[in-house]
Fold these 4 entries.
Entry 1:
Amino acid sequence: MTRRIPAFLVATTLLSGPAAAQMLELEKDELTFGFIKLTDMAPLAVAYEQGYFLDEGLFVTLEAQANWKVLLDGVIDGTLDGAHMLAGQPLAATIGYGTEAHVVTPFSMDLNGNGITVSNAVWEAMKENVPHEDGKPVHPISADALKPVVEDYRARGEPFNMGMVFPVSTHNYELRYWLAAGGIEPGYYSPENTSGQIGAEALLSVRPPPQMPATLEAGTIYGYAVGEPWNQQAVFKGIGVPVITDYELWKNNPEKVFGLTAKFVEENPNTTLAITKALIRAAMWLDEDGNANRDEAVEILSRPEYVGADEEVIANSMTGTFEYEKGDVREVPDFNVFFRYNATYPFYSDAVWYLTQMRRWGQIAEAKPDGWYDEVARSVYKPEIYLEAARMLVDEGLADEADFPWDSDGYKAPTPASDIIDGIPYDGRQPNAYLESLPIGLKGDQRVVGGEVQG
């Protein structure tokens, strides 16, 4: 999407902006940001459509990208100034897994927002293993219910194929987490074999998010993990059933981030602050007054230049509900969270969790000390930039001081067992102890060598 704002409108907007607005001396004011067609790109669309970028003196072009790799490459080579990113992308790039570059984030874009969907045939087979109450499945649904189905496919010599959006995506790690919690091996990576399918009982492969429903319908995969609206799309098309949301899998888990190169931030500190201010305002707008603006957000996202799905499909999850089987609509007010619960603050503990999952499945091939996880988290996640931007908004009367975690050391309180599908608590300050607590996955000095786990 390329849209230019007329000069007279720019002047009017700037003159009518917040009276106390603190206009930064920008190093760069014409910017191009990338995104993937998912509802959690909403802060970018809202910052554009509500004029928050313009309030900061930023002239922004938003461009949809073909896939996550193209998007990351665009940020690294400077074609894009920044982008809506998978949280694992800045971390993986910085540690040299895949494309190597120092990418940082001053802004976490949302919490929750993903789901795991299976085909109708798989769901029919799973239902026999799922408790029901008043004729409806009891949620959350464990992968225990899927395990006999996977075993049946394997007994017939058929691979059980599933889709996820990228090797370092939240969706990959959430799908693996769910499968492993149900006793299903999701497979390992090694330096020699980056398929992620070493020793796998369910074979996971990469598919672009908008193509997930069609790939499921074609029978190429039997299930997938993806962000919205592509789980609800399967329900509307009558081709699949979302069996669990990531809110049920891990309550209020972090999702996307806004990524920029460290070089861009170093060369454009004021511009980075201005971007962060606009995005914080957009996130506030999305959640304010009990999600009162979500209908308007749905209309914006449904436009072809953004997500381009039907309003009804996007609204199904963006406005506080989620539909599982056709007609089984349930209240999930926190399915998409953009600001409350400190959703936009880039916590080090969130970064550490992603790194533990990279280690768990072999993307990080060798054991690392706890201090390494903290060091990488601090090199990528930049809460100091976030808080500086937040302070400016508070001083300008555009944000409430009580809404920001000023005294945080960057680590959340440990996630309690009750908030996670497998009942295993998570403490970002103790990554190796956490890895040891997980029944399936690499721990200690274990490595994947020659197609098997050793050590």
Entry 2:
Amino acid sequence: MSCLRVAVVAVLFFGTGLIEAGENGARLPNRSSVRIADCRIVLIDHVVLACDRSGILKSVEFKEGMQVQARQQVALVADEIAIANLSLAERKGGNDVEVRFNRKASEIAETEYRKNAEANKKAADAGKGNPVALLEVEKLRLAAEKAVLSIEQAEHELLLNKLTAEVSRAELASYSVLAEFDGVVARIYRKKGEAVRQGDPIVEVVNTDRVRIEGRIDLADLKYAKQGAKVKVRLSIPDLDLPEEREEFSGQITFVDLISDPVTHETRIFADVRNKDNILRAGLTAEMILEVHESN
């Protein structure tokens, strides 16, 4: 009887050990997923916007909590001088009078040269002397060629003026602070009327529609962590039992580190997940379930 009890205890002991090994991530024959606990939730779209210009803030369009769209202006540095410079540059870039004047002058010079050259040719064909001195004809030819070059010079100057206008337009745009993506204003660092320097933070914008789940996977399961592999994510808060922890989110692996930790033998992996209702809040922890397929 005592031997039978020992055998039963041994079976229970080893059976329990097998279950525990499975819970800790050991590969079981029929397992179809890998559980990765204690993952960090990090925002993907999170930026602190700064201005490219020094000056006085002319306006700050938003307040904390307000929605902002991509490429929408959120702040503006005083830009009156830049506007005036652009207006002047556009006037110069749109003025082609010099080009048209030189084209007319070239036509006149070419006509004058051609008529005098033809007069000399007719006189020569008739056996008469040149009615126009050859030196004068040569001067007219050079004048016609110079007029052609004057057109090219005028066109070049016009092009430079247009490029100057483009530069002025780009400079004017640098006085505006634009949102990089759709999101919510999380913090305002500067107010209207304050002086700012280049690079000073002005507005913080975040978007919680997508989050990145950062976890570490054991070396034994690393072969299943591939770019594009599907994952399921749940919020996991220690010592709390929240209804939100039962919500499941789908995503896929976007990064697998090329270096493993020499002590723990774990490897960092990231997964991008669509975050409904901002349940996966940045700063909290989550559990990631990596799907394993028989073909892996």
Entry 3:
Amino acid sequence: MMRRLWPILILTIVAISMVVHGSVAQQAEIKVVRIGTGPTGGSYFPIGGIIANLISSPPGSMACAAGGSCGVPGLIVSAISTEGSVENIVGLTASNLDMALVQADVAKLAYLGQGPFSDEAPHRKLRAIASLHPEAVHVVTRASSGIDSIAKLRGKRVSLGARRSGTRVTAGMVLEGYGLNADAVVPVYEGLSRSADMLADGEIDAFFMVGGYPMPAIQYAAEANSIRLLPVDGENADALLARFPFFSRTVIPADTYHGIAATSTLSVRANLVVDASMDENLVYAVTKALWLPENLQVLNRDLPENLRVGAKEAISGIAVPLHPGAARFYRDAGLPVDNVVSQ
């Protein structure tokens, strides 16, 4: 009896050994990535969450062809809420984040060591994976405030965004374009949700926010209170466009926010960025996963139309050099990356 059982026992031991070995090998291939997004009331946090879900494919996930995950095998990505672009740059530099959503203007200033980064060494290791949706400059006030232009913000209590947000950087540029600066207003530094609450309570007169529309916190403010969006247009916008080429003209359509007419403003693209040290093959796989047709269907389903973007648009509006892994994917896809920002 034992002689007959020995071959079965040996095969069982070998099979268990193979399963254990395979499990250990699979475990060794797991890669955890943290993507910095933004405040929960803005556009970065939900978009970052969608991207994290699309490019992840934890061990044991159902295959893409079977209707399961179409991400990078073994990759687990978590979306981290932050104050925004400036904090995300700091997080990447300190290795507290592996990937981040960053406004193109902030990425450019960080790369050059200018603006809020002028006291630091230039962040020359920033690399882009993709340019994503345009982010509109929102300047929000109460409809009853009597403030109908940015020039009338002089002397008013204005939230310029959280201290380590991209909004704070862009708000400073826009104010300068109207002959103002942070000293010309009574500056407050709060995130979107807190700013909206302060406006409703009469604690501030206006607030800036840069992000893809519609922004949930502003939607809520428009429905709960009567608000106004201040335009960024005319000669002041012309001057800003001439000085800062990463800006573009845009219009926030009528009724994007309850009761608000179409509003002319400026926008800047959101860039998905990493450190130059990230493995080229991993970045290639992430970029490929991001633009898979199956994942684009999810993006088109879960995002408003104005926040959708494809691989062809992903190489426009990039503020820092492309990561070699991303550049390789776009070349393989037949896209003209040679004209994109280079080292």
Entry 4:
Amino acid sequence: MRVVIVSKTFVADTAQRQLEWLARMPGIELTLITPPEWRSDDGRLLPFTPRFVKGYEVRQLPVWFNGHYHFYLYRGLRRAIRELRPEIVHIDEEPYNPAGMQAQRAADAVGARSVFVAWQNIARSYPAPFARMEQFNYQHTAHVIAGNAAAGEVVRAKGYAGPLSVFSVHGVDPEIYHPQPHTRHDDEFVIGYIGRLVLYKGVGLLIEALRDLPPRCTLHLLGSGPDEAGLRKMAAEQGVAERVRFLPAVPATEVPGALAGMDVLALPSLTQANWKEQFGRVLVEAMACEVAVVGSDSGEIPRVIGDAGLIVPEGDAQALGAALRRLADDAGLRRMYAGRGRERVLEQATQEQVARKIAGVYGEVMAAAAK
């Protein structure tokens, strides 16, 4: 079967290995359509770097409104789809996005079946143009992959009645994300965070919790974002500024090295009216690297961590501090969770496993089309 994946995800070179696995699946002739670069939500311009592209074709198409996740469009997408003549167009976009609508119409124009990926785990009402696009895509797609359980419930509540699979399409390459020798000082307990510096990710709670932890506990914040100045001020007001290190974001390939400098990775996300944690990819990356994890109970986090880390009530700085203290005081507990984390990733979340699930969806789509 000829498959085209339309996605900005694979600008990140560490994600591309999943497509190599997918291209190895019997009967799949794969092409990726992706932008030559993508402006991430922290402002960095990420160029497409073809690191793992064995076995599939890549077409780079420029986009209008680069960096605007819910507004951008591809230039020349319909022409590219017409030239490739796929049987399946895998649309790695929310059904309410213009780029998703654009890809669906291009698929319709060549008689291809489409597969959408949905992550939105809150039942939100959108303005008329987006609501119409969403319903159009629900009516025209052959299959929806929900990246988390709540997203599957949302698409059903909004009227989608077709085939639905629920699994994360974000796998981890265990050859890239693997345990590395620790690089932190033995007399220091390093609490780490990797991501955008925004309050809704719970970064402020980490600073608040740090105040009541022993002086050997430090906090390393890797990333940038609109709340950085406020977080620096908060650290000063809490009297822990000298124990908080603000570090620049690193490329995806350098994340394992950054994790090697941490004793625990924390993601204490806070549910908002229009957002709750949809997955938390940095958690599985840390787990794959045998770094203990602590997360809040926002959205999908508890299902991602399972029994391989500590879960605390979101918004509770005292509970967060208590969980971090437990791990700081008990090296054996850290090792136990670190080991469970990698086992969980190897059992459930490798790129090969995700590729097999996606290939299974393609098979279902083609079988339904043949009836």
